[in-house]
Amino acid sequence: MSSAESSSASKVMIVTGASRGIGAAVALLAARRGYAVCVNYHSRSAAADGVVQAIRNAGGTALAVGADVSRQDQVQAMFETVDRELGRVDALVNNAGILEKQTTVENLDADRITRVLATNVVGTFLCCREAVRRMAPRHGGRGGAIVNLSSMASRLGAPGEYVDYAASKGAVDTLTIGLSKEVGADGIRVNGVRPGLIYTEMHASGGEPGRVDRLKDSLPLKRGGTPEEVAAAVLWLCSDESGFTTGSFIDVSGGR
Predict the structure, then answer these.
(1) Catalytic residue positions?
(2) Cβ density class 23-55: b for 16+ within 10 Å, e for less
(3) Which CATH number do you get for residue 93?
(4) Which range marks the domain in which residue 86 is found?
(5) Which ranges does the record mark as transmembrane (predicted)?
(6) Does residue 134 contact residue 88 with C-beta atoms inside 8 Å?
(7) What is the pLDDT of residues 96-136, one digit of tens each?
(8) N or C: which end of the chain has fewer CB within 10 A?
(9) How confident is the model at residue 201 (pLDDT cuts 50, 70, 90)?
């Protein structure tokens, strides 16, 4: 099924950066919960197609849509594709994010800072904007849920590793709080999830694939987390069970 008509009975979710890691886990769990899912990706088209195929093999509805979320035109095109192929969006999960090599602030340059903020902050803003333009009753919508993937780094600062990434997630936290107050009366709930040390490929992007294993013993739970554990928190925030929760955060961090 790929048309808006064929998926009309399903709620529609867009998951950005869903070709791997937490995003893929969210997309797979959402499909099992009955959502028709847009699996967004930037460059990993084959991996995104694999997530879509897994959903379809299990009887679900999914569509892979390439878009660089830092580009306004591409974000708009992605939402228009979802409108046409799946129907009006009910849930948006802003998961797309980038992390660059570990370093200190004194060694950062403007290009790197701009790249990180463009994807992690501008991209989240743009996707939120397009979702509100569809979810709000004044635009013909029926409300909805937005979940922004932040990070425990937003609270800890990531000193000596990636303060730029941490700062970008601090901005995501503030966006989450502010937007939740703007659109609450529209029946749109906006919440955040702050993962901690989770076994994903992102740590390799930071230059230390084994980072979780190095730090896990410092956690109260003495282990790293899984993408599926983060996905469960995200799906709860999208569900009716969290109907009175907005402007809030769930830390999935093993007590970090």
Answers:
(1) 165
(2) bbbbbbbbbeeebbbbbbbbebeebbebbbebb
(3) 3.40.50.720
(4) 12-252
(5) none
(6) yes
(7) 999 999 999 999 999 999 999 999 999 999 999 999 999 99
(8) N
(9) confident
